Amino acid sequence: MTFVWAFIVGGLICVIGQLLMDVAKLTPAHTMSALVVAGAVLDGLGLYEPLIDFAGAGATVPITSFGNALVHGAVAEANQHGIVGIVTGIFEVTSAGISSAIVFSFLAALIFRPKG
């Protein structure tokens, strides 16, 4: 049943993104920004962690999880280190994912030789 809920929740997040582009006529960049902000706001309100506990990868894979990670890391580090922790927490939590994206994109570019 875990897989079903992950599929449904992840699909609903994607449907929201698609509706933002089709109905609200937002560009993909604006849609992505809106979903990141939505994830950040939901985490700030304490609603995103229960969603992750319920849906697993259905809530951690979509872009809303990036907003969640930013706020979650900033709040956790701010509690430990004060104001400086807000900035360091954002980088600490997201650095592994961003670094992986850069490295794997570079490796894919080497293997598949994109035409610029």
Automatic annotation (TrEMBL):
<dbReference type="InterPro" id="IPR014204">
    <property type="entry name" value="Spore_V_AE"/>
</dbReference>
<dbReference type="InterPro" id="IPR005562">
    <property type="entry name" value="SpoVA"/>
</dbReference>
<feature type="transmembrane region" description="Helical">
    <location>
        <begin position="83"/>
        <end position="112"/>
    </location>
</feature>
<protein>
    <submittedName>
        <fullName>Stage V sporulation protein AE</fullName>
    </submittedName>
</protein>
<keyword id="KW-0812">Transmembrane</keyword>
<keyword id="KW-1133">Transmembrane helix</keyword>
<feature type="transmembrane region" description="Helical">
    <location>
        <begin position="6"/>
        <end position="24"/>
    </location>
</feature>
<keyword id="KW-0472">Membrane</keyword>
<feature type="transmembrane region" description="Helical">
    <location>
        <begin position="54"/>
        <end position="71"/>
    </location>
</feature>
<dbReference type="Pfam" id="PF03862">
    <property type="entry name" value="SpoVAC_SpoVAEB"/>
</dbReference>
